[in-house]
Amino acid sequence: xxxxxxxxxxxxxxxAEAASLAEQLLWxxxxxxxxxxxxxxxxxxxSAALRRLAALLTTAMHELGAQEVSLPTTTTEPWPxxxxxxxxxxxxxxxxxxxxxxxxxxxxxxxxxxxxxxDLPTPTTLSWAALALDATQAHNLLAAARDRLSxxxxxxxxDHIAAALLVEGTATVIVNCQAAPLATLDCPACGWxxxxxxxxxxxxxxxxxxxxxxxxxxxxxxxxxxxxxxxxGIPTAATAKALFFYDSRAQRLVFAVxxxxxxxxLAKLATAINAGELMPASEEQIRxxxxxxxxxxxxxxxxxxxxxxxxxxNGAPLVAGANRPGYHLRDVVYGRDWQATLVADIAxxxxxxxxxxxxxxxxxxRGAMIGIITPPQLTExxxxxxxxxxxxxxxxxxxxxxxxxxxxxxxxxxxxxGIVWPAAIAPVDVHLVTLGRGEAxxxxxxxxxxxxxxxxxxxxxxxRDERAGVKFNDADLIGAPWRxxxxxxxxxxxxxxxxxxxxxQATIMARAEVVGHVRSGR
Length: 522
Hints:
Elements: H1 21-28, E1 32-34, E2 40-42, H2 44-63, E3 67-68, E4 74-75, H3 79-87, E5 99-107, E6 124-132, H4 135-155, H5 159-165, E7 172-175, E8 182-186, E9 193-195, E10 215-218, H6 225-232, E11 240-247, E12 252-259, H7 266-273, E13 278-280, H8 283-288, E14 305-309, E15 318-321, E16 327-332, E17 342-344, E18 363-384, E19 390-401, H9 403-412, E20 414-415, E21 418-419, E22 430-435, H10 439-454, E23 459-462, H11 468-478, E24 482-487, H12 488-492, E25 495-500, E26 507-510, H13 514-520
Parallel strand pairs: 3-5, 4-5, 12-14, 14-17, 22-23, 22-24
Antiparallel strand pairs: 1-2, 5-6, 6-19, 7-18, 8-9, 8-18, 10-16, 11-12, 11-13, 15-16, 18-19, 20-21, 24-25, 25-26
């Protein structure tokens, strides 16, 4: 690469749209820009860094013995479902197991705020999966893949990402960063983290107290949970909250029931029922299924998908609506007085709720979600076991988004002068600067660049007609691991100036030694 003709130039100031420090550095170093719709784009230097990271992860897949498959460039289908669909016709016997496959694909997701490298709607995703005949084998394969990927990430200078990948029990890989677009619930004891909107809640213990018969009670004006609890003199946790939504994908009405002291998580509800966008139902839609707004009850509904949270299904008697204005039902018990179409964890978790792994109270945090881990789970695919019986396959998986890793690398590795790229994923190894306008200096720069490239090093040659200060500032801003300077004075003495990006001072050495010096210090 020649800096004079490189697509993308360095900037003294980042634009206002670059909100975080890492974004500002990526903009200023000529690594990232945005399209007219605000979506981020990687320029040649950014693409080079992404290719290096992808090459390292590809090598890790080969070392694990995983077989590569090619998928459509963009898909909304979850990775486990994709793998199951591929395996349906080709795996039918234990003799073919275990199998591990991987792919590069574009994983479509909903951007939470504006699109950044941390929050792309379609990130480039490394997707790995294991198919096994039992949960233990699937778990061992998953553990090996996590260990190998974390080793690659550590060697790439991304220790914080490697650590996040190894947190046991998590379904999402979440990393702290200054931009931190994602609200999370975090366990201070075991490190378990989850997006706040998807954080799971443990099922309450079975209720063992009295369960009187359901009865009708007049509750004038008590058309909210707070008003109902105050009127009856009971805690909000002793009530059942009715929430109606319309599923745009399936064109159906959804009635969610959670305990009165909780809110429903739309993200968890949508995941549980594989819904499209969930919108609040209209009063007409609510009445059409036999419910009364403000006094709705799951008892006696028709033509509606009823989803009950775990918190209302443990047998405890609750106060629920009577589908009649001004009235509620006391001592409503799930299983005796009503049934749901589906029971799932759909309540919104909160700070203070116990960690599902160790029971410690969780606290709110912020982070970037960069991956998904699928623990071993049963599929509907049957294969013949050694005893001749058909048994269901187990699947486990890892998904890791690439573009966010570049942002996180810069977020962690920078100083007051610019980016300090980890050597393994730097867009170039050497930033070669020529000082002076003579043909001899230009020729010497070209010759040294050719030698460095022949030695397997990526070179960015700054042969612009600029002052030394401008060139040195740009070299620090771009952040290549090595800066090598060729000047008229140094050329006359058969010397060059060499400095690591992390070193305080440069070193003068013989021109003939520079290639070996840089290679040995990679």
